[in-house]
Amino acid sequence: MDQIREDLLNGIQSPQCYKCWENEDNGLTSRRGMHNKLLTQYGDKSLAEYKQLALDGHIEPLMYQLTISNLCNATCVTCGPGNSTKWSRLVHDGLRFELETIPIIYETAKYVLLVGGEPLLEPVSFEIIDNLIAAGNTTCRLSMSTNGSIRLTDKQLESFRKLINTDICVSIDGIGKVFEYMRYPLKWDDVSENLFRLRDAGLKPSISYTVSNINKPYHEETIAWFKEHGFPYFINPVHAPAWFNGPITERTIEELDKQDKLKGIDRNDYLPYLIIKSE
User: What's the first-to-final CA gap in the chain, in angstroms?
Assistant: First the structure.
């Protein structure tokens, strides 16, 4: 982290940040760009002032990204056991981890991003929300990346509403059967219903749309659904695994065959006009 900070302060594009550089080179919004914008929006200084503080050696954590655990109820096509216990059970490695300590300084935090796994399955996510509220820091922007399958209780919705800058970002990589293949075994009707419920509760959910060579042929209909229902979205191109980035290759088909066998499904039942068959 010290080397990355030094590189960025000296105008060097650190190779560890390649995803952001690649997105920006392609005219897409990067996480770096989003976080810079958020910091100036919710912080009390300009980017130039924050940079000068860093140059002077004053490093105070204001923005946090916490991977709560890999507890998850989905086996998404572009994911794996490192980020999902559902996946780990399929491949029989039993990989399971969770956050041991919570390093947040609740009183001064400007932005907290919770990811998983599926963070809404973990009680610690709601503990963090309660601690921010107890610290009186209700203006901290809480951002959560979720697969949208968890129906929140009325009490949980109320806790989210107490943080006035809550951002719940739902991962949706297609609609209907395409979604159900990309994020098996989640159900589109459940996720879309939860998405509308979040909006009806006043939480203004957004959508993270991960594009790979599998769901790219359905791009237009997916974007049309987002626009029809007025959900803000951003596009996240797949960077890895490499076989899901770029043209469909024999390796792509081989990997999909493995996944389908593990899950006990046939992708031809889900992808109506992109029939990807193995030889």
Answer: 46
Rounded to a whole number of angstroms, the CA Rg of the chain reads 20
Query: Distances from the Cα of 64 to the Cαs of 113, 267, 272, in angstroms?
Result: 6, 38, 41
**How remote is the C-alpha of 139 from its chain's centroid?**
22
> Given CA atoms 84, 186, 268, 224 in this order, what sign does their dihedral have?
negative
What pTM did the predictor assign?
0.83
d(CA 231, CA 128): 26
- CA 5 from chain centre, in angstroms, equals 23
Q: How far apart (Å, rounded) are the C-alpha atoms in residues 279 and 267?
A: 14
pLDDT at 279 over 70: no
Query: What value does the mean pLDDT take over residues 167-172?
Result: 95
Domain architecture of the chain: domains with CATH: 1-60 (no CATH), 62-269 (3.20.20.70)
Q: H-type helices in 75-208, by residue range? A: 85-90, 123-134, 154-162, 176-182, 188-200
Q: Phi-psi category of 93—alpha, beta or left, where left has phi over 0 and alpha has psi -120 to 50?
A: alpha
**Exposure of 186 by Cβ count < 10 A (0-12 exposed, 13-18 middle, 19+ buried)?**
buried
- Give the pLDDT score at 276: 64
